[in-house]
Amino acid sequence: MSVIGPSCNLPSETSGCGCTGKAKRGGGKAAGAAALTTAALAAACTACCVLPFTLPAIVLAGAGSLIAVLDHAHGLMTILSIAVVIGAWIWIAWRARTTGSRIRSSVLALMGAATILTATAALWPVMEPAVFHALGVAKKPRPPAS
Predict the structure, then answer these.
(1) Per-residue model confidence as pLDDT tens digits over 36-93
(2) Measured between alpha carbons, how far is residue 42 from residues 20, 38, 55, 84, 146 in Å?
(3) Which of 18, 37, 49, 61 has its CA 20 to 30 A from that of 122?
(4) Number of H helices and number of E strands within the chain?
(5) What residues does 59 pair with on adjacent strands?
(6) At 136, which helix (H) or strand (E)?
């Protein structure tokens, strides 16, 4: 009578343990898939950790360069805006005269706002020091170099 029982044979030189099935080789594909998954997860975790720190810097750098470009275009855009507003006033007056109709109040309001905004943009270099001083953000003069 065997203490181990009938389902488990004693090991021999060729069979190994009789209680367990033979371990099959061929885990290369599984190991490769596990390595690939680990690498993908590491890349995803790196992106999640690094992106919140780098994205604001990239956005601010892009916005700063856009503002610099717009600052250089201020003179040309102001001249273009003045020409467009004057041309629009002339067009509105010409159409009202040739058709004999009244100019709508909404058109006058919008053209008045466009005129005020264009005048503000044109006079901004003159108004800038007074506006910044009133807001309390005036530039302090540099001390003379000694």
Answers:
(1) 888 887 777 766 776 677 777 778 888 888 888 777 888 888 899 999 999 999 999 9
(2) 36, 6, 19, 56, 57
(3) 61
(4) 3, 0
(5) none
(6) none
Q: Is 6 strand, coil or helix?
A: coil
* Nearest CA among 79, 87, 90, 83 for reference residue 121: 79
How far apart (Å, rounded) are the C-alpha atoms in residues 43 and 48?
A: 9
d(CA 123, CA 102): 31
* Tokens (6 digits) for 95: 């159409």
In 3D space, the residue among 77, 80, 78, 105 whose CA is nearest the CA of residue 92 turns out to be: 105
pTM, whole model, 2 decimals?
A: 0.48
Task: Enter the tokens of residue 26.
Answer: 């061929």
